[in-house]
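User: For my dataset I need records formatted as: sequence, then structure tokens, nothing else. Please produce one.
Assistant:
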Amino acid sequence: MPKDLRKFKNVKIDDIGSNEGRKKIKQQVGDVKLNQDQQEQMERLKENLSDYKDKSDKEIYADIKKMAKENKAKGTLDNKKLTSFANSVAPMLNDEQRDRLGQILKQLKKI
């Protein structure tokens, strides 16, 4: 049975990959069995997240904006997909984070 991603809302990026982080995640969501593809995706996610660990909000937003612009130009991203992504992520965020996501979404839709 799939796990509810909202249980991850108290997990910080720094938690992913550390021993303490794994314990914290395991306490919150229990044992999760991943197949090979999921394990590889998790590893790529950890690598991608570590790239942003020391970046400022401004730098992260610039990267997001650049990726959105490139993917819209390729036709692999549109406003419907942006809205769908935001709607799927929003339940895992607190009010402040949801507000920020809404602001970013508005800006990305204008690209």
